[in-house]
Amino acid sequence: MRINADAVFEMSQLAARVMLPRGNGKIINLASMTSFVAGLDVAAYTASKGAVAQMTKAFSNEGAPRGIQVNAVAPGYIMTKMNRDFFQDKEASWRIFRRIAAGRWGKPEDIAAGAGMYLQM
């Protein structure tokens, strides 16, 4: 909760303090698909990412009139070291994989590309 929720709250506040005097800025938070659909056996993670989604909405409402855009990227399963054990569990991995419309696991570059497109706007 400290990393996923508290740190996002504090970093957003710090960023806004720099952006407010300028009258513009963009904050991109990293939420998760579990922000919207509860995960299995990851209650704390699900709660923390749900908090990120709600904070993003609240900060967006507060920042928009002041020229600050606040959004979140909410990826699903991404092929990272953190998820290595999950991906190696053939049964668990297949249950998720068969529901991925893109037909492949996400890559870190996918998240970076989405955030980069937003920053260029």
Poorly predicted runs are none
- Secondary structure tally, helices: 5
Largest sheet descriptor: 2 strands, parallel
Approximate strand percentage: 5-15%
**Classification by helices and strands:** mainly alpha
Shape category: elongated
Helicity, in percent? 55-70%
Secondary-structure element string: HEHEHHH
The averaged pLDDT comes out at 87
Overview of the structural elements:
The structure is a single chain. α1 (2-22) runs parallel beside α2. This protein has helices at 2-22, 43-63, 84-88, 90-97, 108-120; strands at 25-30, 68-73. It has 5 helices and 2 strands. Strands 1-2 form a two-stranded parallel ribbon. With 121 residues, the chain is mainly alpha-helical. Helices cover 56% and strands 10% of the residues.
A few lines on this structure:
The two termini are about 30 Å apart. The chain has about 120 residues and is mainly α.
Question: Topology, please?
Answer:
Elements: H1 2-22, E1 25-30, H2 43-63, E2 68-73, H3 84-88, H4 90-97, H5 108-120
Parallel strand pairs: 1-2
Helix pairs in contact: 1-2
Question: Top keywords for this entry?
Answer:
elongated; two-stranded parallel ribbon; single chain; mainly alpha; 121 residues; 56% helix; 2 strands
